[in-house]
Design brief:
CATH superfamily: P-loop containing nucleotide triphosphate hydrolases
Number of domains: 1
Number of strands: 10
Strand order of the largest sheet: 6-7-8-3-9-10
Distance between the termini: 48 Å
Number of helices: 7
Helix content: 25-40%
CATH topology: Rossmann fold
CATH class: Alpha Beta
Largest sheet: 6 strands, mixed
Strand content: 15-25%
Bound molecules: adenosine-5'-diphosphate, magnesium ion
Order of helices and strands: EEEHEEHEHHHEHEEEH
Structural class: alpha/beta
CATH architecture: 3-Layer(aba) Sandwich
Shape: globular
């Protein structure tokens, strides 16, 4: 069966397509492969968890998807556009507009207050600074961090820093959220809070690809991929493409409309 040719009407849109992606380090006898002939199709609204032993290529994969790194060979289509044909300058703009990153160590800039950290991805938005700060403040409010917005990163707990980092990842309304072991440095209580935030973001129709070592977190995923030596070992969808959040959201909207009509008739 082939799902890779275009999008059928009513089908969830394909936003990422990787074909035979290979990442090689070194040459000749010293060559090693972080990714080997890697194929992956990601539909809008998926919540993919990637697991696998250390060194199997998970971070390399996220960095390539996030346009932070390039493959040695193979093809990467982002919204059906081959990334290899996109200039470095436009890739930087796409990265800021379409992709939100969340890292294990939060990666907040230490000498900027939280609100300015969160506003950073809006640099490409065309908004002037005041507007960017307002947007950042609104995003922090969603994560119950508004009263901490002028704190410096070191003044926040790990869980709060990661929630600020999630606010930063979503502030520019990206299409894809990439999270590399986002709960790896958190205690279990903070991990749960962070996962609940990711669940909420996903239910709003976002696409998330997350690397984790914690098998108990896979309950949040719609698809679980196990990697081994730069390739996919197992790939299991727990939610059908047709039931992904975007479609669910559309269904809910239709449902609401119908009910409204019904109520109007009464
Ligand atoms: P994971 O995130 O699954 O732990 P990585 O993607 O970080 O794995 O790394 C995959 C493989 O690529 C590892 O064997 C790693 O040593 C190798 N690798 C990663 N970055 C580099 C680099 N800059 N130079 C050489 N090898 C690298
Ligand atoms: Mg890694």
């Amino acid at each position: 069966m082939c799902y890779n040719v275009g999008n059928m009407p009513g089908e969830n849109e394909t936003i990422i397509r990787l074909e035979g992606l290979t990442k090689r380090y070194g040459y000749g006898d010293a060559a090693s492969f972080a990714l080997k002939d890697f194929d992956l199709t990601v539909k809008r609204g998926e919540f993919i968890m990637i697991m696998g032993p250390s060194g199997c290529g998970k971070t390399t994969l996220l960095n390539i998807i996030g346009l932070l790194d390039t493959a040695t060979s193979g093809a990467y289509y982002l919204n059906d556009e081959p990334v290899s044909r996109i200039s470095a300058r436009r890739q930087a703009r796409l990265r800021a507009k379409k992709i939100g990153f969340i890292f294990q160590n939060f990666n907040l800039i230490p000498d900027l207050p939280i609100i300015e950290n969160v506003s950073l991805p809006l640099v490409y938005s065309g908004y002037h600074k005041t507007r960017r700060l307002i947007k950042a403040s609104e995003a922090l409010d969603r994560f119950n961090l508004k009263e901490k917005e002028y704190y410096m990163p070191f003044q926040l707990s790990g869980g709060q820093q990661q929630r600020a980092a999630i606010a930063r990842a979503i502030v520019a309304k990206p299409e894809i959220i990439l999270a590399d072991e986002p709960t790896g440095n958190l205690d279990s209580h903070s991990s749960t809070l962070v996962m609940e935030e990711l669940k909420r973001i996903h239910s709003e129709g976002n696409t998330i690809i997350m690397v984790t070592h914690n098998p108990s977190l896979t309950v949040y995923a719609t698809r679980v991929i196990n990697m081994l030596d730069g390739a996919i070992d197992t790939d299991v969808k727990t939610v059908k493409d047709s039931d992904l959040p975007v479609r669910v959201e559309e269904k809910t909207k239709k449902h609401k409309k119908k009910n409204k009509k019904k109520r109007g008739r009464r």
